Amino acid sequence: MKPAPFEYIRADSVLQALEWLAADPEARLIAGGQTLMPMLAMRLVRPSRVIDIAGIPGLDALEIGAEHVTLGAMLRQVAVERSAALAAALPLLAKAIRFVGHPPTRRRGTIGGSVANADPAAEIALVAVTLGAEVLLAGADALPARDFFLAPMTTALPPGAMVTGLRFPRASAARRGTGFAEVAMRQGDYAMAAAACELLADADGRCVSLRLGIGGATPVPVLLDVATSDRAAVAAALAPLEMLHDPNAGAGYRRRAALALAMQALDEAKAEAGL
Amino acid sequence: MKLTLNVNGATRALEVEDRTSLLDALRDALGLKGTHAGCEHGVCGTCTVLLNGEPVRSCLMLAAQAEGHAVTTIEGVAPAPGELSIVQDSFVETHGMQCGYCTPGMVLTAQALLRDNPAPTREEIVEAISGNLCRCTGYGQIVEAIQLAAERMQRSNTP
């Protein structure tokens, strides 16, 4: 399996990458390439030009501010995995990152690539939607993650724009608990269903915020509309959602798995928060 | 396109097509056939090489993307011609292979693991090689090989 011929060029700046994208609608960006390379090899995509953004200074930034945590598009998944400061600021992302591919693909794979690719099974996208992150764009205004993902492998990214990072709001509460659960054929394989949960509580143990997201089972990650954490409420929130189906996992299975995983993630978050 | 790659400590000049993967550049342009081509789309891990000491799949990189980085292939792990590294020798000792196709990728992955974590648990070993498929051994002897290599490396340079 070899890609169809293309021209490889390296962008030195975001501006240059945008110019090259504007000049050629058939051009594609390459970040870590862990999804684009197989798609090229299988000739599912045949770009005229492949624009490498790995050398753009600052695009791999990891900024932990008082209000936000900002991850640059070129930040490697392994850098997320290895940052203790990030694990303290975004513990849910730290839990989820270990489910992203395998160690060798996490060394090349990036935050921005995972977001722009919009695979329904992508854990980073699920965490972004669950925590209310914004997708930072160059050539267009930032979009909330929940509005960015439209359908499998389809995003609201305008033509000629590029993803430059993710910005997460920083939660502050006396107590916080997070949970992440996933079912796949093998560890590191595409999730058939996944659930992510962040629970915030005050010093007296009263829940002040519950965020529960589902990915893998649905065409795009979904933040569930739940006011309480009981099983019936979660099942009711899942009921109207469209489920994906394939020969390995039907829609009914995914709905049941999503519910079971949501409860598992919730229980983990509750236990961590001491509720 | 003309490229300059740092492979196994040597600077190598080569000319490849823009679309050429690092895997194909190593095998075809540089004649380093120890890096095996398996699925060629990132699933099997047999083409694993070290990029700046870290395991990556060489089929999931363009050769051009490796410019400016240090690439280590299986040809670069032995201490001297005709010798084996501790990890390679441990794979021989426990027979951590059968057909041998996945072995270069397994050895390089194990090498990087033991550098970062000299005394890995069984779970850590399994996690480290989770991206490398072996269709012969059932992985048992490969895990044993890595455990043996860890013990030997801890004892090396001690009286």
Explained architecture:
- The complex is a heterodimer of chains A (275) and B (159).
- In chain A, 33% of the residues lie in helices and 26% in strands.
- Chain A has helices at residues 14-23, 36-41, 77-82, 84-89, 91-97, 103-108, 111-117, 123-130, 145-148, 231-238, 251-273, and strands at residues 7-10, 28-30, 49-52, 62-64, 68-72, 134-138, 143-144, 149-151, 154-155, 162-169, 175-184, 191-201, 207-215, 222-223.
- The model of chain A has no long low-confidence stretch (mean pLDDT 96).
- Chain B folds into 2 domains: 2-76, Beta-grasp domain (Ubiquitin-like (UB roll)); 86-154, DNA polymerase, domain 1 (Orthogonal Bundle).
- A 5-stranded mixed β-sheet of chain B has the order 2-1-5-3-4, sandwiched between helices.
- With 159 residues, chain B is an alpha+beta fold.
- Chain B is globular, with a radius of gyration of 16 Å.
- Chain B has 5 helices and 5 strands, in the order ββαβββαααα.
- The chains are: A alpha+beta (275), B alpha+beta (159).
- Chain A binds chain B through residues 1-8, 10, 30, 33-34, 37-38, 40-42, 50, 52, 54, 78, 101-105, 107-108, 186-188, and chain B through 1, 17-19, 21, 24, 40-42, 45, 48, 51, 54-57, 59-62, 64-65, 109, 127-128, 130-131.
Question: Which key phrases capture this entry?
Answer:
heterodimer; A: 275 residues; alpha+beta; Uridine Diphospho-n-acetylenolpyruvylglucosamine Reductase, domain 2; Uridine Diphospho-n-acetylenolpyruvylglucosamine Reductase, domain 3; 3 domains; 5-stranded antiparallel sheet; 4-stranded antiparallel sheet; 11 helices; B: 159 residues; Ubiquitin-like (UB roll); 2 domains; 5 helices
